[in-house]
User: Fold this.
Amino acid sequence: MAEKKKKKRLSVMYILGGGIFKEDFIVRHTRIIVLVVILFFFYISNRYTCLLKIREIDRLQMQLKELKYESLSISSKLTENTRPSQVEELVKRQGLDIKKSTTPPYRIKKK
Assistant:
């Protein structure tokens, strides 16, 4: 008869109806069960926050890599455009009447 009573207690309607909360084990350990549930929610929240931060870090690293490539590209273009031969060609294309100096630069000394 004890087996029949156990099967009857563990039915779906018994659990859904809330009868399980009247069990001796549940009543005695209510505090620890509540603590475990609260810790479980903190764990889920912390994991979700960490995943969001990891995604943000990955996105920022990709953005940094793209900006580094862009900076390198701009730097190489600037280096190419500041070569004396490129400057002379640009002056000719613009039609400016500027000639390269034939005398070397000299320093003026202060007394």
